[in-house]
Amino acid sequence: MRTFTFSDLSLGQSDTLLRTVMGADVEVFASVSGDVNPIHLDETYAAGTRFGQRIAHGMFTASLISAVIGTKMPGPGAVYLSQTLRFLAPVKIGDVVAATVTVAELIEKGRRVLLDCACLVDGKSVLEGEAWVAVPAP
């Protein structure tokens, strides 16, 4: 892992994490979060919903953005200040999610960075938002 300091970052810089959503991921997330909604865990129940099958938790998908921020860009030492999220489409078991963050604004005071955040499945946006993070000094 690399840590990007404030001076290492530039507008438009981005990084992406790819993750295949597995049934076990959803089950572990349900256990950790306490969100045991059957749409995430029960095939029979989920088959009767508008999605027709189990779907991942929206916050599981959002957590992939956190993974990019914490491990890729800006990386270790980055501290979340805030996050907005818009859930646009379901993520199903077996989907490959591409979570991307892109530097949209740099504020030197407090070494704050605004990141545009997006998660895509097969090129289609499933989640969009923005995150403010504080990054380490050089």
What's the helix count?
A: 4
Pattern of helices and strands: EHHHHEEEE
Biggest beta sheet summary: 5 strands, antiparallel
- The proportion of strand residues reads 35-45%
CATH architecture of the domain at 6-21 and 57-134: Roll
Q: What topology, given as strand order, has the largest sheet?
A: 1-3-4-5-2
Helix content: 10-25%
Say how many strands there are. 5
Q: CATH H-level name of the domain at 6-21 and 57-134... which superfamily?
A: Hotdog Thioesterase
Low-pLDDT segments, ≥5 res: none
> If you average the pLDDT, what whole number results?
97
Name of the top-level CATH class of the domain at 6-21 and 57-134: Alpha Beta
Structural class: alpha+beta
In angstroms, what separates the terminal alpha carbons?
Answer: 16 Å
User: Which value, in Å, is the CA radius of gyration?
Assistant: 16 Å
* CATH topology (fold) name of the domain at 6-21 and 57-134: Thiol Ester Dehydrase, Chain A
Outline, from the CA principal axes? elongated
Task: Give your account of this protein's structure.
This protein is an alpha+beta fold and 138 residues long. It has a domain at 6-21 and 57-134: Thiol Ester Dehydrase, Chain A, CATH 3.10.129. Helix content is 25%, strand content 36%. The protein has four helices and five strands; from the N terminus they run βααααββββ. Strands 1-3-4-5-2 form a five-stranded antiparallel sheet, covered by helices on one side. A hairpin with a 2-residue loop joins β4 and β5 (124-134). The longest helix is centred in the middle third of the chain and has 14 residues, at 58-71.
